[in-house]
């Protein structure tokens, strides 16, 4: 009888363990939803309004496209001819921009989105709502624009706060080529891509020479009005009382 009880308990333990393994292998919970989309894709599939976005998804837009994604109170909008990978993070999400432009809007507080473009890292301020845009001009030049709030931008060993109403062109230290896409917050992230020092051809900007040792990698640039910054209007989408 005792042996029978032991066998039953062992079988129950194995059953529970198998269930835990299956549970651990189930797909991730949804990360966010597509609020608006036009000529846009998740992976290789066309995307429409209301589609679910998961951590690790590859998002892209055509030349005439745009895609607005909502993650809690955060919104990111890929503009035309742009692509990015998006991942879950403890604070909300991290988006790795591969090409083109992304507009972000954050509510301030614990929810946030970090944007990585080449080896430039953009972190909107947590103490207030933020609204801005990040654009990859070429593999070694990234423009960061803050329309509302401010953002901390780090490249190599230099960090700068981009204040409200200002924009800077940031010269990356390296261009990046990927063997595998992982979240920039993953501990193995740097094992799956390679750095190539930015050559003079990429760093030359309007006749300016490459960054010399000791020079800042941040160049102030004038920005236009907020109008036209987004296709769908991120701020209005966030503030709408009918927002799902």
Average pLDDT level? 82
Q: Can you tell me the CATH topology?
A: Jelly Rolls
- Please state roughly what percent of the residues sit in beta strands, choosing from under 5%, 5-15%, 15-25%, 25-35%, 35-45% or over 45%: over 45%
How far apart are the first and last residues' alpha carbons, in Å? 59 Å
Q: What summary fits the major beta sheet? A: 15 strands, mixed
Unreliable segments (pLDDT under 50, ≥5 consecutive)?
16-26, 235-244
Helix content: 10-25%
Order of secondary-structure elements: HEEEEEEEEEEEEEEEEHEH
Q: How many strand segments?
A: 17
Radius of gyration: 21 Å
Task: Write up this protein.
It is a single chain. The chain has 244 residues and is mostly beta strands. The protein has one domain (29-239): Jelly Rolls. It has three helices and 17 strands. It has helices at residues 2-24, 200-203, 234-239; strands at 32-42, 45-46, 52-53, 58-71, 74-78, 83-89, 92-106, 112-117, 120-124, 130-138, 141-148, 151-155, 158-162, 166-171, 174-178, 193-197, 218-221. The strands form two sheets. It has a 15-stranded mixed beta sheet that branches. Strand 6 (83-89) and strand 7 (92-106) form a beta hairpin. The chain is globular, with a radius of gyration of 21 Å. Residues 16-26 and 235-244 have low confidence and may be disordered.
């Amino acid at each position: 009888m005792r042996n029978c009880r032991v066998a039953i308990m062992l079988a129950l333990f194995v059953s529970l363990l198998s269930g835990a393994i299956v549970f651990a292998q189930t797909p991730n919970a949804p990360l966010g939803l597509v609020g608006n989309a036009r000529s846009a894709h998740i992976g290789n599939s066309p995307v429409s309004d209301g589609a679910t976005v998961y951590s690790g998804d590859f998002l892209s837009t055509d030349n005439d496209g745009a895609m607005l994604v909502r993650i809690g109170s955060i919104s990111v909008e890929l503009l035309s001819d742009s692509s990015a990978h998006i991942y879950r993070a403890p604070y909300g999400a991290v988006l790795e921009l591969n090409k083109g432009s992304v507009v972000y809007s954050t509510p301030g507080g614990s929810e946030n989105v970090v944007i990585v473009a080449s080896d430039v890292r953009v972190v909107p301020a947590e103490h207030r709502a933020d609204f801005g845009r990040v654009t990859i001009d070429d593999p070694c030049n990234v423009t960061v624009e803050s329309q509302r709030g401010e953002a901390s931008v780090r490249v190599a060993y230099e960090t700068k706060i981009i204040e409200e109403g200002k924009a800077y062109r940031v010269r990356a230290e390296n261009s990046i080529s990927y063997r595998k896409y992982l979240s920039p917050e993953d501990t193995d992230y740097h094992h799956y891509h390679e750095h190539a020092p930015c050559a003079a051809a990429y760093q030359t900007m309007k006749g300016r020479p490459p960054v010399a040792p000791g020079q800042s990698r941040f160049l102030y640039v004038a920005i236009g009005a907020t109008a036209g910054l987004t296709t769908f209007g991120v701020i209005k989408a966030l503030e709408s009382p009918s927002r799902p």
